[in-house]
């Protein structure tokens, strides 16, 4: 077993009430949730991004991702499979209070992520409907196997506060920075106000990568205030100090994947 089920359930029961009432939206991070040797093997097995990865390359997002679990090293795929298992779903349901969670067998947008020198991911809210399964996106889980990451390299996951008026998102202030510490797991509920990202340009050595594993969870419908929201792509939002010159690009990206976001082209 990769996870200690009793430990996870103890965390869920202890932190569930705090998580569910958290502002500006529900989120939490836990350290030391995975067997150290297992996660260390995953870090050692992480490949340098090649032409089997998706490449996101534009001023809003620069990262690499791979969601085909059959092309991943066993040390990584077995963690992702267990993160989609019934006991892990029970842990998430207990923590979040969201019943009937459904894992994504396609790992759409998830799986393996890598961010190296010069990479970033602007503040955004995620796509809200699975394009294949037509299910409502509810929970994101990020697990960091990266070792010896230094804070001065940036790479911090940022939680932001903001508001939605009509169809316009406006960010007000940053809530918290969460650094990619080895064996740290970040969990948060996704909605029209779950503003998050890695907006500071990463300045690590050329041979280093900010590795992470990502899994997303869905429900068949939702009963909160966002139940009638129309399906949308990932939506990028300008921070208060960001320049206006990317507004047109944000609008274009928010309507779908850009031509610069490709698979099989790694410069």
Description of the structure:
- With 267 residues, the chain is of the alpha+beta class.
- It has one domain: Sandwich (Jelly Rolls).
- The protein contains five helices and 14 strands.
- It has helices spanning 5-20, 36-45, 74-82, 86-96, 247-254; strands spanning 27-31, 54-58, 61-66, 102-103, 111-115, 120-125, 136-144, 157-165, 168-178, 184-189, 195-198, 210-219, 235-236, 262-263.
- Strands 1, 2, 3, 4, 5, 6, 7, 8, 9, 10, 11, 12, 13 and 14 form a 14-stranded antiparallel beta sheet that branches.
- Strand 2 (54-58) and strand 3 form a beta hairpin.
What would the keywords be for this entry?
267 residues, alpha+beta, Jelly Rolls, 14-stranded antiparallel beta sheet, 14 strands, 31% strand
- What is the total domain count? 1
First and last CA, distance:
38 Å
CATH superfamily: q2cbj1_9rhob like domain
Give the count of helical stretches.
Answer: 5
The ordered H/E elements are HEHEEHHEEEEEEEEEEHE
Structural class: alpha+beta
Mean pLDDT: 93
Topology, number of strands: 14
Described by the principal axes of the CA atoms, the overall outline is: globular
The top-level CATH class is: Mainly Beta
Low-pLDDT runs: none
In the CATH hierarchy, the architecture is Sandwich
Give the amount of beta strand, in percent: 25-35%
Q: What integer value in Å does the Rg equal? A: 18 Å
- Measured as a percent range, the helix fraction is 10-25%
Taking the sheet with the most strands, its summary is: 14 strands, antiparallel
CATH topology: the name is: Jelly Rolls
